[in-house]
Amino acid sequence: MISVGHSPDADDLFMYYAIVFGWVDSALNQKFENIALDIQTLNEKALMGELDVSAISFALYPLIKDQYALLRTGVSFGNGYGPKLVKKKGVKLKKNFKVALSGKHTSNALIFRIFYPEARIIYKNFLEIEQAVLSGEVDAGVLIHESILCYDDALEVEVELWDIWQELVKENLPLPLGGMALRRSIPLNKAIDIEKTLIKAVDVALKGKKTLSQMLMQKGIIRVDSQKLDIYLNLYANKDSVILNSQQKKGLEKMFKLGYDAKIYDRAIKNCDDYLIPMEYESLRFN
């Protein structure tokens, strides 16, 4: 049984549930067990090597690159949008403002720490961040997942992380948010089969978007209504989620360089292709 960790947000559920519903199968008849946890918990489990396959924050990857390979599928990038830093309306933030982020190893935390070095950071489950701002526990918070679509009227956006990203990279590249990683100890033929199965799951989900969305809504595991679900999936589970493309790779490499330059990573990742599963093995094996 291959353990697959994913977050309970709509895009992860959407991209994985084609397997749960039996719409796709493994060519090697491998069986999958899905485990839904918040993204920071998944990041921590990846650091401990506890799951075979897991959704991760892209910012975590340089810390687990020796134990996990990057997968080409199930990726989420911002492109003109992304997480939002919110505060109470009318509040002016000081340089050392107190902020709630969704986890130390999340992509939004990496960008935030680089851009706001004097901010006082606390980490919370992403579902608790809005209330922490409303209660005054923190001055501001970064909203992620579906929370970017629907937050309290008492709040306003201080800045979009997309705009911070653009200012940092000085280039129009997609903002890396989340992807998937696979344990390197899995035999290569099985690893390739897992990746191909997950690619099929994302592709089939997109082709059957309306039906799958309805099924997920009926199961009561989506936190937004059908209209907001459609908007959210258009942002984070779309044609660019199926296979990592060249612009996305450039965005990833730029993020890893920012982290290395800020001394968050001890080694640089210069070429994403070096950390992907070598799919050419399959053709070589059979020739």
Q: Could you provide a short overview of the structure?
A:
This protein has 287 residues and is of the alpha/beta class. The protein has helices at residues 10-20, 39-48, 61-64, 107-115, 129-135, 161-169, 188-207, 209-218, 226-236, 246-261, 280-286; strands at 2-6, 32-36, 53-57, 68-70, 76-78, 84-88, 98-101, 120-123, 140-143, 155-160, 175-183.
Task: Please tag this protein with its features.
single chain; 6-stranded mixed sheet; 287 residues; 11 helices; 5-stranded mixed sheet; globular; alpha/beta
Order of secondary-structure elements: EHEHEHEEEEHEHEEHEHHHHH
Distance between the termini: 29 Å
- What is the 3D form? globular
Query: Helix proportion of residues, in percent?
Result: 25-40%
Strand proportion: 15-25%
- Tally of helical segments: 11
Helix/strand-derived category reads: alpha/beta
Average the pLDDT over all residues and give the rounded result. 90
The radius of gyration over CA amounts to 19 Å
What does this structure look like?
The protein has 287 residues and is α/β, with parallel strands linked by helices. It is 40% helix and 18% strand. The chain is built from eleven helices and eleven strands. Strands 1, 2, 3, 4, 5 and 11 form a six-stranded mixed sheet that branches. Helix 1 (10-20) packs across helix 7, helix 1 packs across helix 8 (209-218) and helix 4 (107-115) packs across helix 6 (161-169). The longest helix is centred in the C-terminal third of the chain and has 20 residues, at 188-207. The protein is globular. The mean pLDDT is 90.
